[in-house]
């Protein structure tokens, strides 16, 4: 019986996190483009595990690479097979911590400022479910 209560509590927490997940259109109505201040866009936003980033851009004009801090700072573009290229790329934020994204087309990252750094928080702020009563004395 205790196992069932724990399972139900776990399911409720997971469902609450899914319901609270947000979708962020990177750059809002301008989307993923050059000459946009993505630091200002991200400022004040709180990203949680389970949220999604959507990078919208004209196909062929841009792409998206997930990179590390060094590649972000220096605009080092990973191998082409790692690029997201659909023009409507969705990334689920699956783990907490710093995340970095750049455009690998031409000098879009270096001179166009087409790069985004965010910090992902560990949970969606879902309400915690209190454990059920102790099984002792409840037979």
TrEMBL record:
Q: What is its main location?
A: membrane
The residues the entry assigns to the signal sequence are 1-21
Q: Which InterPro entries match?
A: Cupredoxin, Phytocyanin-like, Phytocyanin_dom
Cell membrane in keyword set: no
Q: Where in the cell is it found?
A: Membrane
Chain segments annotated as transmembrane: none
Domain Phytocyanin: start-end pairs: 22-122
Entry's Pfam families? Cu_bind_like
GO BP terms, alphabetized: response to symbiotic fungus
Q: Name one GO molecular function term.
A: electron transfer activity
PANTHER family referenced in this protein's UniProt entry, alphabetically: BLUE COPPER PROTEIN, PHYTOCYANIN DOMAIN-CONTAINING PROTEIN
Q: What is this protein called?
A: Phytocyanin domain-containing protein
């Amino acid at each position: 019986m205790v196992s069932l209560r724990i399972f139900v509590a776990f399911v409720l927490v997971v469902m609450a996190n899914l319901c609270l997940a947000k979708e962020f259109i990177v750059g809002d109505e301008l989307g993923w483009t050059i000459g946009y201040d993505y630091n200002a866009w991200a400022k004040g936003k709180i990203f949680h595990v389970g949220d999604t980033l959507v990078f919208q851009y004209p196909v062929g004009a841009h792409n998206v690479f997930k990179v590390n801090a060094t590649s972000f700072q220096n605009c080092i573009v990973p191998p082409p097979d790692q690029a997201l290229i659909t023009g409507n790329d969705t990334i689920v934020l699956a783990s907490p911590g710093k995340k970095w994204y750049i455009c690998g087309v031409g000098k879009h990252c270096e001179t166009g400022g087409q790069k985004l750094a965010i910090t992902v928080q560990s949970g969606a702020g879902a309400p915690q479910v209190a454990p059920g009563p102790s099984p002792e004395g409840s037979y």
